[in-house]
Design goal:
Elements (H helix, E strand, L loop, with lengths): L1 H4 L8 H15 L1 H4 L3 H24 L9 H19 L3 H26 L4 H21 L1 H4 L5 E2 L24 H24 L2 H11 L1 H7 L3 H27 L1 E2 L1 H4 L2 H14 L4 H28 L4 H6 L5 H15 L3 H11 L2 H5 L13
Antiparallel strand pairs: 1-2
Length: 373
């Protein structure tokens, strides 16, 4: 049953399976295991980035397309919820209208990018997507009547998801259940469902064709696959999943602005997470997001403790200053790329294949994609 749920794409590594299980349990029971507002915000950010990074990996890792417009679709999802909730009030209808409008706009834009730009090769396509993203960020900053400009939009969510909603008078396992926790578990359920859907997509005949295009586009086209059609569909699916991630961000923060969802720094973070977790593996998005977001959120606190402990050595205390957290984060990234060139997932799976019993075991036959008509 579990294998079918995972679309026959099991971790294929016991350490990887244990790591994924640990992340799943930690995220599911964060309110009970790690009490506090900061821990809950970090866990919610991990869930959002899992969906966002997995959607980008669908484009980069499985199709071989480098796009810098991914945060544009992320921002469209967030702005769709923010604008609809601001104008229609805190209601489920507003969330539905915002979600529908954002998905429709993302579909049209991703289709336009796919049809007009996917015939352009390599770096030229990346530059076109970067231009699209920059133009959309400029529009979001200038159309203050709709987007709130640089100040962004603050809005309310339905009462069930608001912190003031308390369905129970007594705490459960020491934690008072309120609308904030209900909103978190809603994000958790949505993230799990979307990851399972993406696993199903990449392990379907359609996903096999995408991987064939990634490995050798000219050969795939010579065999008879319509490369432009497959790449366009992949671009559309990736954009829609990124839009859903933006909706999750807006519902959680109850705010959205240009720097919140359209910043180019988010795009850089997504690229780093894909490399850390492992390209071409949806599981890599889960592990990379958890490692990166936790390190980004708690590295300053750890450096502060280390700096205080090394107060007797001024040079060491200065080196471990919390102000230098970006230096240490970059160092951690360099080390992760050096020791895990194929990402954490790729490395753990490679270690399993190096075992004698794993090499002797026969491999299951790979699924053959159906040829496009």
């Amino acid at each position: 049953m579990l294998t079918r749920l995972l679309s026959n794409d099991t971790p294929r590594s016991r350490p990887l399976a244990l790591l994924l299980l640990a992340i799943f349990v930690a995220l599911a029971f964060t309110p009970f295991l790690f009490p506090g507002v900061k821990a809950l915000n970090v866990a919610a950010k991990v869930l959002i980035f899992i969906v966002l990074v997995a959607s980008f990996d669908l484009l980069l890792g499985y199709t071989g397309i480098v796009s810098f417009a991914h945060t544009m679709f992320f921002g469209i999802g967030a702005y769709g919820i923010a604008i609809a909730s601001t104008r229609m009030g805190a209601s489920w209808g507003a969330l539905a209208v915002g979600a529908g409008g954002a998905l429709a706009l993302s579909f049209v834009l991703s289709l336009a990018i796919g049809l007009f730009s996917l015939r352009v090769r390599a770096i030229f396509f990346s530059m076109i997507t970067l231009a699209f993203a920059a133009a959309f960020q400029t529009l979001a900053s200038q159309l203050s009547e709709f987007t709130g400009g640089e100040d962004g939009l603050s809005f309310k969510v339905p009462a069930l998801l608001s912190p003031s909603f308390e369905p129970f008078e007594t705490p459960f396992l020491g934690v008072l259940i309120d609308g904030r926790l209900i909103c978190y578990w809603l994000l958790f359920a949505l993230a799990v469902a979307l990851v399972l859907v993406m696993l199903r997509i990449v392990n379907s005949p359609f996903g096999r064709v995408l991987q064939a295009i990634r490995e050798n586009e000219f050969r795939a086209e010579a065999v008879g696959y319509r490369v432009v059609v497959y790449r366009t569909v992949s671009s559309i699916l990736s954009a829609l999943f990124a839009t859903l991630a933006g909706m999750m961000l807006a519902v959680w923060l109850r705010y959205n602005g240009p720097d919140t969802s359209l910043s180019f720094e988010i795009m850089l973070d997504v690229l780093l997470i894909v490399v850390i977790g492992g390209m071409g593996t949806i599981y890599g998005a889960v592990i990379g997001s958890a490692l990166f977001v936790v390190a980004q959120s708690y590295l300053q606190d750890l450096l502060r403790l280390a700096s205080e402990a090394a107060s007797g050595l001024p040079w060491l205390a200065a080196l471990l200053s919390p102000d230098r957290w970006l230096l240490w984060l970059g160092l951690l990234f360099v080390l992760s790329v050096y020791y895990f060139p194929t990402g954490v997932v790729g490395r753990l799976r490679a270690l399993r294949l190096q075992r004698p019993d794993a090499r002797a075991a026969p491999r299951p036959p790979a699924a053959t994609p159906s040829r496009a008509r």
